[in-house]
Design brief:
Elements: H1 18-39, E1 41-46, E2 52-60, E3 63-72, E4 77-82, E5 89-96, E6 102-103, E7 107-111, E8 116-119, E9 130-138, E10 144-149, E11 165-170, E12 180-181
Parallel strand pairs: 1-10, 10-11
Antiparallel strand pairs: 1-4, 2-3, 2-5, 3-8, 5-6, 5-9, 6-12, 7-9
Length: about 180
């Protein structure tokens, strides 16, 4: 997928000399900033035929945070975290609303049934939260990343990553092999 950014600049009186160079430089910097801002996100695509709910965990300068729920339709994508990525590793827990099953892992973090933002990953039950196993996503220190959820036996569609970013397909392993139980 290639993103195209179009900015309409009204035609004004043409600046001359040094003013023209400064104007062109300013417009160029604005375009670069807009493209960088547009492409720096953590996204998730649901490449299944079911609706899924998604929670994400990450560590930033203030410690661990888990957030949920994003509800994605079949074959839909969503930006989970906007802006440049703050960590190399992110953690995902997803549940299939229509057919049951989940994408999970061995990184245990706090979560709950309703919409949540939870600081910290310890003492989940004592603090009144549920505890769930999230799977790890290594973004390889890219500015943006897209995770592809697929069904067993499917492969993620080949899409070009966002400019400056990468994507990682998460196809479930064979039953009993680890991070996905469907």
């Amino acid at each position: 997928m290639t993103r195209q950014l179009t900015i309409a600049v009204p035609r004004l009186q043409r600046p001359r000399g040094a003013a023209a160079g400064a104007t062109l430089l300013l417009v160029g910097l604005m375009l670069l900033a807009a493209v960088d801002a547009a492409s720096a996100d953590f996204r998730l695509c649901n490449n299944t035929s079911s609706r899924v709910g998604v929670a994400v965990g990450y560590k930033d300068g203030d410690g661990w945070t888990t957030e949920g729920w994003w509800n994605l339709p079949a074959r839909g994508c969503e930006t989970l975290l906007k802006g440049q990525l703050v960590a190399r590793y992110y953690y995902i827990y997803a549940i299939d609303y229509d057919r049951g099953g989940e994408w999970s892992g061995h990184a245990f973090m706090c979560m709950r049934d309703k919409e949540f933002t939870i600081r910290g990953i310890s003492d989940c039950l004592a603090r009144g939260f549920d505890r769930g196993g999230f799977f790890e996503v290594d973004t390889q220190e890219q500015q943006s990343w897209t995770v592809q959820l697929t069904e067993t036996g499917e492969s993620a569609p080949q899409r070009a990553p966002a400019p400056g970013g990468r994507q990682g397909a998460l196809a479930p392993p064979a039953p009993g092999a680890g991070n996905v139980a469907r």
